[in-house]
TrEMBL record:
The keyword Transmembrane helix applies. The chain crosses the membrane at residues 6-25, 46-67, 87-105, 169-188, 208-230. It comes from Sparus aurata (Gilthead sea bream). This is TLC domain containing 4b. Residues 261-270 have a biased composition (Basic and acidic residues). Residues 41-243 form the TLC domain. It comes from the Eukaryota. It is a multi-pass membrane protein. One of its GO terms (cellular component) is endoplasmic reticulum. Residues 250-270 are annotated as: Disordered.
């Protein structure tokens, strides 16, 4: 890993930590009066999800820019110039390390084995991008999934503030979340895997070596399985809201049942 990428990873880690511990509490207190009435465990997750949203917007928009304007990466998806992609991936890796530390420190209230698997699979794959500069197109394509994260987090914010599930804003966000999550994580699978299969047997693919090939394919399979599971949970929760099955406010005893509707849906990166 070059000094620039290592600096970005470290800088992102520190920046997201400062956003979590300093900026989010102050900003949230000003914007949302209900923030100060939340229990300490929810304050931690609130700040975590605000950081997640900021990261998603930065990385997701940067991802689209690269996809539309970086001709070198699009011309050679396996060995194209990875400069911009490595910068975006480094930001994401810094975020993932920050979030793993946060989960470890708050495991009793925020711990989720799916999140840990997701993060480790992503770091494993992105490590090859940062150290060898390979697969820039595919690494960048994966980051499109971040565009669904703000809607997932907003759903949790409404729930934490005890908005009724029948509230117009909750319903609209839920539908938008389901649609966007499907478009950027599920609907893109055929296109993504078609591009992957197109590289098989080529000289560029052989140059990767077995280790990089295994890291690439296995991590993608793992992430797609997790995304499918989360899509199922989101769809089930959205269906309940639209059919009137979740019209009451979320109260203390309903926290457990809400998890099956997507409370612990992934709010992190691919």
């Amino acid at each position: 890993m070059e000094t620039r990428e290592l600096t970005v990873v470290a800088g992102s880690f520190v920046g997201f930590q400062l956003l979590f511990s300093v900026a989010s509490p102050r900003l949230s207190s000003v914007i949302t009066p209900g923030y100060g009435r939340l229990p300490s465990s929810k304050l931690t997750e609130w700040n975590s999800r605000l950081v997640s949203t900021v990261h998603a917007l930065i990385v997701g928009l940067f991802c689209l820019y690269i996809l539309w304007f970086d001709d070198a990466v699009n011309a050679n998806p396996v060995w194209g110039d990875p400069s911009l992609v490595k910068l975006n991936v480094a930001i994401t890796c810094g975020y993932l390390v920050y979030d793993l530390v946060l989960l470890a420190c708050n495991w009793s209230t925020m711990g989720d084995s799916f999140f840990v698997c997701h993060h480790l699979a992503a770091l494993y794959a992105y490590g090859y991008v940062l150290t060898r500069g390979v697969l820039p197109y595919f690494a960048n394509f994966r980051l499109i999934s971040e565009l669904s994260t703000p809607f997932v987090n907003q759903r949790w914010f409404y729930e934490a503030l005890k908005y009724p599930r029948s509230h117009r804003l909750v319903v609209l966000n839920g539908v938008a979340m389901s649609v966007v999550f499907f478009l950027v994580r599920i609907a893109v699978m055929p296109s993504y895997w078609a591009s992957v299969f197109a590289t098989f047997g080529t000289q560029d693919f052989e140059r990767l070596g077995l280790a990089a090939q295994v890291a690439w394919i296995t991590s993608c399979i793992a992430l797609d399985i997790l995304n499918t599971i989360w899509m199922y949970k989101i769809t089930r929760g959205c269906y309940k809201v639209l059919t009137g099955g979740g019209g009451r406010k979320v109260k203390g005893g309903s926290e457990a049942s809400s998890s099956s509707d997507g409370k612990h849906v992934n709010n992190h990166t691919d």
